[in-house]
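Lab meeting tomorrow. Please check the following:
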Amino acid sequence: MTMVKQRARTLPGAMARRAMHPKVLRTGAGARAWRLMVDAPGLSDSLRSRIARRVGEGLAKANRPEGAVLALSAAARRTTGARHRADLLGQAARIELGRGKAPRVLTAAVSAELSWADTQWAAGRRRVAAASAVTALRLAFHRVLHFDRTTSPLAEDPGAYLEPVHRSETVRALTRSAGRATPAAEPPAGRPLRLLFVTRGNANFLQQIRDHYGDHAEVEARYLDFKDVPALDRLATSLPRLAAHRLGDDKEFGRQAEELLRPHLDWADTVFVDWCAGPAAVISSVDPGTTRVVVRLHSAETFSPWPFLVDFSRVDDLVFVGAHLRDLTVSVVPQLSSARAPRLHVIANAMDLTSQVRPKSDEARFTLGLTGISSVAKDPRWAIKVLRVLRAEDPRYRLFLLGEDVDGKLSAASRAYARDYRRDVEELEPSGALRRLGQVDDVPAALADVGVIISSSVRESFHCGFVEGAASGAVPVGRDWPFFAGKANSARTLFPADWVVGSPQEAARRILELTATPETWREAGRAASAHALAEWDWPVVRTRFDRLLLGPR
């Protein structure tokens, strides 16, 4: 072992590069030799870390990712310095994430990074602590873990998963409430309410609301898209600067945010921020004065670092589109259980459901529809499993897929899912059992050909496409979204109990039963449409928004 240490200290650079060449590291002997070296006792942290990181990179390039993770993990166990340990474990985690896998060392990597952040925070190095905390949060909320696979450790057990995050002193400081100097004012009397809508490049769920208040006699509405203001957009996309500002550093960030936002805040009585992401974090970084701040959280934000960068003591009302999302978000973000938390509301997405109601032909009875399939979370392969069970009974059943195809470009995990999805499509499409309609401009017209609407997702905040299909008179068959199944609030509490099923087999049984005759199918469709319109059509949801934003007038 002494010889190994000596070689590690004295190996010339050129020789080391040759020894770490992918051709060498692809061999079992070469990989084992380097793992022994990085695990050798007596090396300084600096030397061990330098060698281990190069070995890890070399093994990953040599297509030996398992060996890279083993080498980096072994070196981390021998390392006492917090920074070196965090670097080694972080590299090991990122190698596995790059392969689309949940890292075995993820908890250790996040804990090590936050340990370093806490050390820097205690020493008064706030900007360094902020950057380290953001690194840890980005690891914990990496898209491979929560977006590009059909499972999420956060959904399974948020408390256990986020334990290292919640116990970190830096994160606690990051989420500390700054409060506001004065409470939000009551709605004005004698003039229209000045209402400012804010988003960043995604107004998909705002149109109905904007149209309503844009024409409202008691409202003067404006719209601010951060992407239209480059200086604001830079602030909203810089997590390290946001974090540093929250920790009391980067006063220039605060000055810029104040300068850019104050004219909007001084004009508005109420600011409605759609999506609890960058704009919400920037707006809450300044004292809003007497302006009321309302933020709406959809779904993706809960599986991201953003809620840890929003000062909720400066948010008066936080709107969720589903009670199940509210419950999960409260368990993720401790601020939402504090005395200074905003008021929490659940209001469904704004949809014009009446326009979806059109006559359906008899042939639609055997046509299943799934709208919006581009993300892995939509899990269209589950709907394809339902189709296979149905066609084993009756080959007349077919599946229409509406929307852009599954996006496999986002990560190795999404690529793996997309490959399996394409195999399903290639098998079923030639016979006509499956049809991809792509992005459609006239959704109501497309739904007129759909007799059964499917929700196959692993998670949803609400699933507008499913509700639109039900409103059209298609029989709704919704998966019990696995991220929320079995909890106090879930798909089973959002929708009528008989709409929701636990497996493809149960889905097929419901479809076979309710499409057995034209009469049973049409009656089930009429009942579903009536329920959807009574619960979620815009005239119904509009009154809930009016109560929230206008209050008694």
Remarks:
- The mean pLDDT is 93.
- Residues 518-536 form the longest helix (19 residues).
- DSSP finds 28 helices and twelve strands in the chain.
- The first strand starts at residue 193 and ends at 199.
